[in-house]
């Protein structure tokens, strides 16, 4: 049994390594079949680990989503809540623009709410990277809103969706990072409280 487990773990790691390279080259359009072929495995083996392309993309980007979560935790203690929120949004935007396919992972709907409570089934079906990022962003946004540094109607989902949209919109631009920074600045202006 141990041999099978270590074989499965080796296959999992090989699949992720190949998928990272394929996604870096092709973005979210990387196919499971091509990943399997390049990894020297059958597509059924890949699908046992990752039944959908979305699941494969989530696994590839999970580590970076966790790093962004750690960055948000670092920024939570900053004295200027607006500066902390904007620093995290810039870090998030920089990564979303530089990592092909990441913004596609974030194209999701938030978990459905039933009587103010998130529906567990809908939450499980939602993007784990998106859920991680929203959870990371929540304390930064809440604090900025409490301090009057961000509009009260802005939600974490709004901000994650906006950054994903900026990354997707600038993907083919000759200077994606520069264009994304410009668009984020325009978006942030709209995030600022009125008056």
From TrEMBL:
Give the signal peptide range: none
Annotated DNA-binding residue span(s): 31-50
User: Which Gene3D superfamilies does this entry report, sorted A to Z?
Assistant: Tetracycline Repressor, domain 2 (1.10.357.10)
**GO terms for MF:** DNA-binding transcription factor activity; transcription cis-regulatory region binding
Domain (HTH tetR-type): residue spans on this chain: 9-68
The UniProt keywords, alphabetically, are: DNA-binding, Transcription, Transcription regulation
- One Pfam family this sequence matches: TetR_C_43
Spell out the PROSITE patterns in the cross-references.
HTH_TETR_2
Q: Which PANTHER family match?
A: HTH-TYPE TRANSCRIPTIONAL REGULATOR BETI, HTH-TYPE TRANSCRIPTIONAL REGULATOR RUTR
Q: What is this protein called?
A: TetR/AcrR family transcriptional regulator
Q: What is the protein's species of origin?
A: Streptomyces koyangensis
């Amino acid at each position: 049994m141990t041999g099978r487990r270590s074989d499965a773990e080796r296959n999992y790691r090989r699949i992720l390594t190949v998928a990272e390279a394929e996604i870096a080259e092709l973005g979210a359009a990387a196919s499971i079949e091509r990943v399997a072929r390049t990894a020297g495995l059958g597509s059924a083996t890949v699908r046992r680990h990752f039944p959908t392309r979305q699941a494969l993309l989530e696994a590839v980007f999970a580590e970076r989503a966790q790093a962004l979560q750690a960055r948000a935790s670092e920024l939570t203690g900053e004295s200027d809540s607006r500066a902390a929120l904007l620093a995290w949004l810039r870090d998030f935007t920089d990564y979303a623009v530089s990592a092909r396919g990441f913004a596609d992972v974030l194209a999701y709907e938030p978990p459905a709410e039933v009587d103010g409570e998130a529906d567990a089934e809908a939450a499980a079906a939602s993007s784990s990277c998106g859920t991680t990022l929203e959870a990371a962003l929540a304390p930064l946004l809440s604090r900025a809103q409490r301090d009057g540094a961000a509009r009260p109607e802005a939600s974490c989902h709004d901000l994650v969706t906006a950054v994903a949209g900026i990354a997707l919109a600038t993907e083919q631009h000759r200077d994606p990072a520069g264009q994304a920074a410009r668009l984020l600045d325009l978006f942030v202006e709209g995030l600022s409280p009125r008056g």
